[in-house]
Amino acid sequence: MTKISPEFEVKMEEEDILEVSADVSFSSNRFPKYKLGADNQILEEPKEDNQGPSLKEVVEQESANLSEQHKRLSVRDLASKFDKNLTAAAKLSDEAKLREVASLEGHVLLKKLRDALEFLKGRLAGRNKEDVEKAISMVEALAVKLTQKEGELIQEKFEVKKLANFLKQASEDAKKLVSQEKSFACAEIESARAVVLRIGQALEEQENDSQASKKQDVEELVEEVQEARRIKLLHQPSKVMDMEHELRALRNQIREKSMFSIKLQKELAMSKRDEENKYRIYALEGSENLGSYLRIQPCSDKAPLLSKSLIQWYRLSSEGSWKEVISGANKSIYAPEPFDVGRTLQAEIVSNGQKLTVTTTGPIDPAAGLGSYVETLLRKSNTEFNVVISQMNGQDHASHSVHVFHVGKMRIKLCRGWITKARENYSSSMQLCGVRGDGNNAAKALFWQARKGLSFVLTFESERDRNAAIMLARKYALDCNVMLAGPDDQV
């Protein structure tokens, strides 16, 4: 059932109601709708938002767009974008100021409305008074909510101001950067223009110089051609050909005379040596050049046996002023090695307290073609020779299998297939020289002491390979500051 209360009408005097100021402007011509919830909490009815996103959302969206486009925008575009955003921030700031004015007007209106309700509350009683009290509480709740809205508005205003300052500073920085880049670009353009100008001047000068030099060369060539024509006209072609034939014949005669002279000198030396050998007990036999061997032969039946005599070979200087002992050369056979080229060799025979000497007729001659062969081998990093081990540590080697003798720039190695007999770097303890006495194979044999306590006598396939191996090893050892020489004593 519905309780019907008697209607009553309260007349209010016009002078008792406070008038609203005419300066206040309202955004709407109706009062907002509210309703009470639990515990008398004022709930605002949802309303449609026809004004688009909030200021905070706009600021966040613009910041995100700026962050995404920062890397791919050029300096000029970035400056333009900053200017646009700065304008938008200024517009947002103006809108915030308008909202602040509207909020102030709302506070004034709520204050006047509350005063009016308080005035009504004093004149009403009963249920109407309770309704007025409820209305007053709703007005107070609206004032609180309006205060909260003002706080949010102040925060948004602060953020907008901060964003505006940031955009303003970024715009100024972008303008400075654009100006700086523009100055740099102008400087580079001027520098490039100056370089191009200098290059053009240099090319022009070079072209002028080349034309002048070409002209001078052509003039000199013309003069030479004219001089050649003049000389050709002065001399008859037949006389020139006769002179060339005469010169060629004279060169052939000189060559034949020199060869004949060398042959006569050798025959004279041999006849002189044969004549001297008539009165000598011993003589040297063999070619006096690298790649052969020399043998001491008795010239008389009264000559003491060489096996019972002491023999020592020496190297003499070209003038014969000094002589050098060849260590280990104490046999009747000696094969010259590369150290002996250009030196005279002498052998001393001591028997029964009597000392006899035999000497080569002249210096030892080099082997034909050995120098070019060694030069070819030096172009390789490693040279291999086929050898046979004749002796090992002073003892005869039973096996006569073929081994490979490697002569490298840093070491020497002796191996057979995968088996390595010795592999040593060049050092002061290493010795290498020709064998000092080994019968008819002395010219092909080589003595190599890899280290103390390990030595070999190796026989090569030819005299050229043996001498080339000695020369290569000594050259590489000298590059390592090592001097390879013969042994102090060899049995």
Could you describe the 3D structure shown?
With 491 residues, this protein is of the alpha+beta class. Among the domains are: 32-44 and 53-193, Helix Hairpins, CATH 1.10.287; 281-359, Immunoglobulin-like (Sandwich); 370-479, PH-domain like, CATH 2.30.29. Helices cover 49% and strands 19% of the residues. The protein has 6 helices and 17 strands. The protein has helices spanning 55-69, 75-123, 127-234, 237-277, 370-378, 463-479, and strands at 34-36, 42-44, 282-285, 294-298, 310-316, 323-325, 333-334, 344-351, 354-359, 382-392, 395-396, 402-408, 411-416, 419-425, 431-434, 445-451, 454-460. Strands 10, 11, 12, 13, 14, 15, 16 and 17 form an 8-stranded antiparallel beta sheet that branches. A hairpin with a 2-residue loop joins strand 13 (411-416) and strand 14. Helix 5 crosses helix 6. The longest helix is centred in the middle third of the chain and has 108 residues, at 127-234. The N and C termini lie far apart (151 Å).
Number of discrete helical segments: 6
* Beta strand %: 15-25%
Q: Can you tell me the residue ranges where pLDDT is under 50 for at least 5 consecutive residues?
A: 1-29
Largest sheet: 8 strands, antiparallel
Structural class by sheet pairing and helices: alpha+beta
CATH A-level architecture of the domain at 32-44 and 53-193: Orthogonal Bundle
Q: Percent helix among the residues?
A: 40-55%
Query: If you consult CATH, what is the topology of the domain at 32-44 and 53-193?
Result: Helix Hairpins
Gross morphology is elongated
Q: Helices and strands, in N-to-C order?
A: EEHHHHEEEEEEEHEEEEEEEEH
Spatial separation of the terminal alpha carbons: 151 Å
Tally of extended strands?
17
CATH class of the domain at 32-44 and 53-193 equals Mainly Alpha
Q: Overall mean pLDDT score?
A: 77
Calculate Rg over CA atoms: 61 Å
